[in-house]
Design a protein that fits this description.
Distance between the termini: 27 Å
Radius of gyration: 24 Å
Number of strands: 22
Number of helices: 14
Strand order of the largest sheet: 5-6-9-12-13-14-15-21
Strand content: 15-25%
Shape: elongated
Oligomer: single chain
Length: about 425
C-alpha cells in the first residue's frame, strides 16, 4: 500500500499508470465522489506493492533509494534489467513497497446510528471487531429506551462482527447529568437499569455492553464507580464484556464536568475495554482547528496508559471534519462534513489541500458566495499517522465515531496496519 499526494498536473489515469492499478479501483478505494476533479494536495490510498518512477536528470539508483526510503539492495532486486551505471533520464524504475513493521492483532469498534445506510454499513463491516449501535437511552427510574434498527445486530452477527449494546444517559436528545444522578441515587432505579441491560444482552444476542455516560456530576464519581462494579459483576457472570467510553484526560485530577467522574484507574480495572474519545479538539463552536491534533492525542494516551492497562484501550478516531466560515466569530457554528465530501469540495472549488505537520491534519480554504471558509478534516496521511499511535502505545485497537459515512481509505489503512481480531 502506498499513500500518494496529488501534484499539479496529475490525472487519475496518470496515477493509475504510475502504480499499475486500474483507475476504477483507485476511485473505489478512495471513495472519490468526483474522480474527474482531483485536488492538489489530496492524498490517495494506492493498493499496490510497487510504483513506476520516471528517473530525472542527475538521479541515480542510490538517490532514488534514499528518496523513497527503500534499501538499495531491494531496489536492485526489483529492477534486474537495469544497469546502475548506465541509467538515463526517462528510465522507468520499479519502486517496491517495503513494510518495516509486522501486522499486529487489533480490535476495531465502530459506532453507528440506526439511520446508517446499507452502503455505509457494508463499507465498514468487513473491517470491524465490534459494532456499537447508538444508542439505548434511559429515564430517571432506570428504564431503558431501545434504539431503532435492530437489524444492525443481525447484520453484524452475519458478518462475524460482535454487536455491543450501547447505553447512554441521553434524555430528550442530550446527555443528561440529572437523569444519571437520579438513577445513581435510587437503589431500585439502579437495579432496574442493570436488570434491563442484562435482559437486553440475553434476548437480543449482544456480545456485551458499551457504556457512554457523559456529563456526570462530579459529586457522582464514587457512586458511578460503584455502579460500574455492580454492573461488571452481573455482565461477567453472563459471559459478556463491559466496554466504557472515557473523555480524553491529560491527568487524573483534570477539572470539568466532562472529566472529573471519569475515573481512568477504576474503569481500567473494572472494564474489559475502554474507548478513549480522542477527538473534538476542533468542534462545532470552537475556533478552526484540527479535530484530532496528534500531539494532544499523544498526551492523553501517555496519561491513559499510566492508569489503564494498554491492552484494554481503544483509541478514538473521528470520521468527520468541520467547515468554518471566516473570519471566525465566537458563537458561530461550524458545519460537520464527511471526509469524502471534504476532498470533493476541495476539488470542486479548485482549492489546494495543505497539510499541517504539527497536528498531522489536512486543511484547505475556499470561497463561496463571497464568504471565505476553512475546512479541517482527515485523509489517508493523517489517519495513517494517528493509527500508528496504536502501535506506539501498544493499545488494544481503535474505535470510530461514527461509521455512518463511508470512507474506505480508513479501513484499508487499518487493514494494512493490523490483523483485525474476530471472536
Amino acid at each position: 500500500m502506498f499513500i500518494y499526494t496529488v501534484k499539479s498536473g496529475d490525472t487519475l489515469n496518470g496515477i493509475s499508470a504510475m502504480f499499475g492499478v486500474p483507475a476504477r479501483k483507485i476511485v473505489t478505494d478512495n471513495t472519490l465522489l468526483n474522480p474527474a476533479r482531483l485536488a492538489v494536495g489530496q492524498s490517495l490510498v494506492i493498493m499496490s506493492d510497487e510504483r513506476r518512477y520516471v528517473l530525472r536528470e542527475g538521479q541515480t539508483l542510490f538517490s532514488v533509494a534514499s528518496e523513497f526510503g527503500v534499501p538499495l539492495e531491494t531496489l536492485l532486486e526489483a529492477n534486474p534489467d537495469l544497469n546502475p551505471i548506465s541509467l538515463q533520464p526517462g528510465d522507468i524504475i520499479i519502486i517496491p513497497q517495503t513494510r518495516n513493521f509486522p501486522r499486529r492483532p487489533a480490535l476495531l469498534n465502530g459506532y453507528a446510528y440506526p439511520t446508517i445506510t446499507s452502503e455505509a454499513l457494508d463499507c465498514a463491516l468487513a473491517f470491524l471487531t465490534f459494532l456499537s449501535p447508538f444508542s439505548y437511552s434511559m429515564t430517571t427510574d432506570g428504564e431503558i429506551i431501545a434504539p431503532r434498527g435492530e437489524d444492525l445486530i443481525y447484520r453484524a452477527v452475519r458478518s462475524a462482527v460482535m454487536p455491543l449494546m450501547t447505553v447512554t444517559n441521553i434524555f430528550d436528545g442530550t446527555f443528561s447529568t440529572e437523569v444519571l444522578s437520579a438513577v445513581l441515587a435510587d437503589d431500585r432505579a439502579r437495579e432496574r437499569l442493570i436488570a434491563s441491560i442484562i435482559y437486553e444482552l440475553e434476548s437480543k444476542g449482544y456480545y456485551g455492553v458499551n457504556l457512554d455516560m457523559e456529563y456526570i456530576a462530579p459529586d457522582d464519581r464514587e457512586s458511578y464507580n460503584a455502579f460500574l462494579e455492580e454492573l461488571a459483576d452481573r455482565v461477567h457472570e453472563g459471559g459478556y464484556v463491559l466496554v466504557t467510553a472515557l473523555a480524553p484526560k491529560y491527568r487524573a485530577d483534570q477539572q470539568g464536568i466532562l472529566y472529573e467522574s471519569h475515573d481512568y484507574e477504576v474503569q481500567g480495572r473494572i472494564a474489559d475495554y475502554c474507548v478513549i474519545m480522542t477527538y473534538e479538539w476542533g468542534y462545532t463552536f470552537s475556533a478552526p482547528m484540527s479535530v484530532q491534533p496528534i500531539e494532544e492525542v499523544r498526551k492523553v494516551l501517555s496519561y491513559a496508559v499510566s492508569a489503564i492497562p494498554s491492552e484494554k484501550i481503544l483509541m478514538g478516531m473521528p470520521n468527520y471534519g468541520y467547515d468554518w466560515t471566516l473570519p471566525f466569530m465566537r458563537g458561530n457554528a461550524a458545519q460537520s462534513i464527511g471526509l469524502a465530501a471534504a476532498t470533493e469540495l476541495a476539488g470542486r472549488t479548485n482549492s489546494e489541500i495543505l497539510y499541517d505537520e504539527a497536528t498531522q491534519t489536512p486543511y484547505f480554504y475556499y470561497t463561496e458566495n463571497n464568504v471565505r471558509h476553512i475546512v479541517w478534516f482527515d485523509d489517508p496521511r493523517s489517519i495513517s499517522a494517528k493509527l500508528a499511535l496504536v502501535d506506539e502505545f501498544d493499545l488494544a485497537g481503535a474505535s470510530w465515531w461514527t461509521i455512518n459515512r463511508c470512507y474506505t481509505p480508513a479501513w484499508l489503512i487499518a487493514q494494512n496496519y493490523f490483523e483485525i481480531v474476530r471472536f
